[in-house]
Amino acid sequence: MRKALVTGGSRGIGAAICRALARDGWQVYINYNKSKDKALALAEETGGTAVWADVSDRAAVAAMFETVGDVELLVNNAGVAHAELVQDLTDEVWRELYGVNIDGAFYCTRAAVPGMVRARRGCIINIASVCGVYGSSCEAAYASTKGAMISMTLSLYKELGPSGIRVNAIAPGVIVTDMLTDAFNDEEIAAMAAEAPLGRNGTPEDVAELAAFLASERASFITGQIIGCDGGFRV
Ligand code: NAP
Question: pLDDT by residue (tens digit) across 148-204?
């Protein structure tokens, strides 16, 4: 069975991606940090395996890859968000967002690539954001981590393509998960839906179906793309 590792697979978009990949026949490793019970329940549900690592911790990522071994698919999904005026942003918040969103994607990519190069086959999907493409007021830290993820994608597809590895990013718009409901109230979330040309916010499954497609053979000629999944929403 082909092995996939999804970071931040315990909840939200990552959990939906784990479900879609398991349905499509992948052996899924579900990375979690704090939500152990959710990851274990999802592993039970999907026949996958829950694996702990705080992705911002390079030693923890190395230990996770010791357990998991080589993977054919890596989905860098783990992420944290924060909204604040730039003059109020603390060093700690800035570092936390870069630690999880970018260092984490780098540590996991660095650990996954050698096995993919040996196999001359692999796929990396980075879960970025519309904020990384268009910017977002009061989200300089979050948006810039996602912008960095996009440039990492645009560099890696060139570097890794000759080794048979495809690298793409998904830029979700407003997706209803804990990340959204922790930051905005119902009224604000409804207002965002009204702003989207398709008239609704996204679901984790909307993003998961795109990820499952990009991971599949049906997308075997697709690399170096930043694909929006946003109902037409622009920040
Ligand atoms: P979420 O519901 O808050 O879930 C976040 C996931 O990331 C959880 O599984 C969490 O795991 C994991 N995570 C956080 N810190 C981690 C760490 N240090 N190490 C390992 N895992 C960690 O968020 P979501 O909405 O599903 O977001 C998933 C991705 O989509 C993120 O990269 C986010 O930036 C991106 N995105 C979301 C939206 C949106 O509107 N929701 C829009 C654009 C992009 P634990 O609970 O186990 O700690």
Answer: 999 999 999 999 999 999 999 999 999 999 999 999 999 999 999 999 999 999 999
Residue closest by Cα to atom 33 of ligand 1? 79
Using the mean position of ligand 1's atoms as its centre, give its distance from the Cα of residue 1 in Å: 26
Ligand 1 neighbours, Cβ below 6 Å, are 7-8, 10-14, 31-35, 54-56, 77-81, 100, 127, 129, 172, 174-175, 177-180
Q: Is 157 marked active-site?
A: no
What is the rounded distance in angstroms from the CA atom of residue 203 to the CA atom of residue 182? 16
**What is the pTM (predicted TM-score) of this model?**
0.98
CB-count burial class (<10 Å; 0-12, 13-18, 19+) for 160: buried
Q: Which CATH superfamily includes the segment(s) 3-228?
A: NAD(P)-binding Rossmann-like Domain (3.40.50.720)
